[in-house]
Amino acid sequence: MSLNPPSLRPDIAPAARLSDGPARAALGRGGQPTIGMVSLGCPKALVDSERILTRLRAEGYAISPAYQGADAVIVNTCGFLDSAKAESLDAIGEALAENGRVIVTGCLGAEPDYITGAHPRVLAVTGPHQYEQVLDAVHAAVPPSPDPFIDLLPASEVRLTPRHYAYLKISEGCNHHCKFCIIPDLRGRLVSRPAHAVMREAERLVENGVRELLVISQDTSAYGVDLRHAEERGHRAHITDLARDLGSLGAWVRLHYVYPYPHVRGLVPLMADTAAAGSGVLPYLDIPFQHAHPDVLRRMARPAASARTLDEIAAWRASCPGITLRSTFIVGYPGETEAEFQYLLDWMDEAQLDRVGCFQYENVKGARANDLPGHVPDDVKQDRWDRFMQKAQAISAARLAARLGTRQWVIIDSVDAEGATCRTMADAPEIDGNLFIDTGFDTLSPGQIIPVTVDEASDYDLWGSPA
């Protein structure tokens, strides 16, 4: 079992990997053309990878868990930050070296000349969520060889997450124009899925053993705005109604990327009873505040710049005392003064957020923030990041220490010879902490949800024993 490092940063994309999704779905019959997948970046991109692999499986392709076993490899890229672009180029280079036949898709695919300039040997480049173009590129590179007597639509989608949790994408795109962000340019304006379609997918996932649904989008709070919150087939396209419907399925429902609009208050009462029941809408809000100083927020063109966030936080905690608040912040934004940064640190002392990540500001090609005056030197950004994370770590340690002796529901992610690695309701996979069980774990298995008594706490993690 491994512990979270003190510098845990949820904004950094996971390391490039050839997906092991086929381990959860048969590789296929002999003689099938075979495709590999490397998925980079955020969970929204991971969902895109899953959809591509599901379509390929339905067309008679097998999925390879290794470069050497694949007729071609798809690399789904991240292109939000320069550091993510560099990682994507490295992953493309590795796939070319190991396999030689590479198709590139994803956010960085919006800059095909940038990719082909570095790697002219790639077979094709497509942009984000361009499923049909990716399939066309695969067909051109590796023609399908379907057998209508054997190949059937998979009983469930190919997934790249463990069997017991899944990401549920409810919308694509974003209507905001934050100056540091190019997501609307890459992925377009908000397009919400009909609520009945989201529910059908969620029901199918739960039927297939998923115990935790991680709801994702670019702006979860805005879900259904473009549909005018239409009701169809008994389900209304509004985030509060959707959360209530999802919470009735008997699984954990975790909400990510929630902007603090006033109507978010309607979500919090849904969370209040979950801590005792062990299932439903989790008392967990992932809200990207990005900063606290009003002038910095104004320069960012953040949609919640005028919100009285401390008052909102107090109201959420009054309505649901066990709620966990997670957020991300940017330090070193153009024009940020030492006084504005200190304001953010003081705000953190008051807000006492449970889970916090932090970016150092980077220019992004095409972002309006690039042209702002007063860019902060790299050494100052690093110093502010260090000070911010020191503050966040101290707050995390104190809030986790307050859980000693309490009873927490946990979901078990893995079990090995050393013990069980779990997550409480306060912990999203891969970006938050863990709870470890190192005694009495012999009968436990991944996907179980059990009560645990907390025995020990560190800066980011907990230890406990089955209650």
UniProtKB/TrEMBL annotation:
* Localization: Cytoplasm
Q: Which CDD domains match?
A: Radical_SAM (cd01335)
- Give a short account of what the protein does: Catalyzes the methylthiolation of an aspartic acid residue of ribosomal protein uS12.
Q: Which Gene3D superfamilies match?
A: Methylthiotransferase, N-terminal domain, Nucleic acid-binding proteins, tm_1862 like domain
Which metal ions or organic cofactors does this protein require, according to UniProt? [4Fe-4S] cluster
Q: What is this protein called?
A: Ribosomal protein uS12 methylthiotransferase RimO
Per the record, GO CC terms? Answer: cytosol; ribosome
UniProt KW keywords: 4Fe-4S, Cytoplasm, Iron, Iron-sulfur, Metal-binding, Ribonucleoprotein, Ribosomal protein, S-adenosyl-L-methionine, Transferase
* Domain Radical SAM core intervals: 160-398
Give the family per the record. Answer: Belongs to the methylthiotransferase family. RimO subfamily.
